[in-house]
Amino acid sequence: MQESFWQRYWRFPIIWKVLIGFVAGAVTGLVVGPSIEVVQPLGTLFLRLLQMLVMPLVFFTLIVGAASIRPSQLGRAGVKILVYYLLTSAVAVTLGVLLALAVSPGQGLSMPGQGGEARMPPPISQVLLGIVPTNPFAALAQGDVLAVIFFALVVGVALGALRHSGEAGRASLSEGLLAIFRGINEVMFVLVRGVLEYAPIGVFALIAVTLGRTGVAALVPLAKLTGVVYGGVLLQILFYSLLLALLGVGLRRFWSAAQEPMAMAFVTRSSNGTLPVTMRAAGRLGIREALYGFSLPLGATINMDGTALYIGASVVFVANVAGIDLTPGQLLGVIVTGVLASIGTAGVPGAGLIMLSLAITQAGLPMAPVGLVAGIDAILDMVRTMCNVTGDLVGTQVVARTEPDFVEAPTRAPAEGVGVPS
């Protein structure tokens, strides 16, 4: 029997649908121009659908992941992923600084007019204290990702402790509760699949509006900065490949699974919004939910390799525009600030400008040149978010490689399909 159009459409890989939407949106945006903003609601709807899934998905996946293993095992893997996130962020921001110093991307540009005061992020101490929520339900309602992660981990660890307490009554109750959480988690992945089917339309609108507003000419004055950021991300990805190769990870298999979340992150510019797709990729790599259930949501919040690289390059760019030579102390401060600021920066479009404002202030540079960077922030945000998400997945694979308990046996690897985080 011959397949219908819709049957062929559903079987067509999502990654190709998204890429077709991206190309069509880019061409349409450049041809039509600013008037293409009429399709903006289609892109906004896609982002809202993704954001709708983030909080419940993070909450229930973290609980299931943390409860699925012994607390001692969770602690060991947690330390490893945290160390990885901090070290790779430091590598990224250093790479951004060094590349920008070599290229001097802002040289020859003039200062823009004074703009409005940049929105500043909270102090690091406030960010760290804010991780512990006074009201977990308010944190869920307000989208406070760090607080939700903390509370879900605490609940999951407590549930895991009950499962392994050795008391039959407590273990039985905890298994029943865990089964409910797992059921809700499966429902969330069904919703993820449905939202992904809408992705090509949303991607078309997002790209069309972005290029319709900026146009090709908007990239010319800042082409060197754009080249530094894009080139730096490429080098960071090569660093990931080297790290994976040293651990004996099959690069072809890994990058084949990673291409979908990388493409989704590039077009949506949201680490949190891409989280469902990144989880599917981790499952496809045979990594257990017990690991990626907490490493990926945590990474989407505190691991911002691409954004750290962008900050390093942009601070040098601002210094070039202002005609200021950065001292070694200022450069060191930029590196430290870039790593620490990522802890409190949400994985949503445009959050990198908040981190950049913090780094600019810390370095004692004028804020006015930030307006130049903001003009192409959407273009830079695409590639830096892709790097952020890639770093999360690489970190999860690195920990899984060093912790065999978190890897599925080959015969048990999750299959592609609705309701399965593959």
Question: What's the short story on this structure?
Answer:
This protein is mostly helical.
**Number of spatially distinct domains:** 1
Query: What multimeric state do the chains show?
Result: single chain
The portion of residues forming beta strands comes to under 5%
> Tally the helices: what do you get?
17
Radius of gyration: 22 Å
**CATH level 3 topology:** Proton glutamate symport protein
What percent of the residues sit in helical stretches (DSSP H or I)?
Answer: over 70%
CATH top level class name:
Mainly Alpha
Shape, please?
Answer: globular
Structural class category: mainly alpha
Structure description:
With 422 residues, the protein is mainly alpha-helical. 74% of the residues lie in helices and 0% in strands. Helix 3 (40-67) runs parallel beside helix 7 (145-163) and helix 11 (271-284) packs antiparallel against helix 12 (289-302). The chain is globular and about 75 Å long. The two termini are 29 Å apart. The model is unreliable at 112-121 and 410-422 (pLDDT under 50).
Keywords:
Na:dicarbo_symporter_sf; Proton glutamate symport protein; mainly alpha; single chain; Na-dicarboxylate_symporter; transmembrane; cell membrane; 422 residues; Dicarboxylate/amino acid:cation symporter
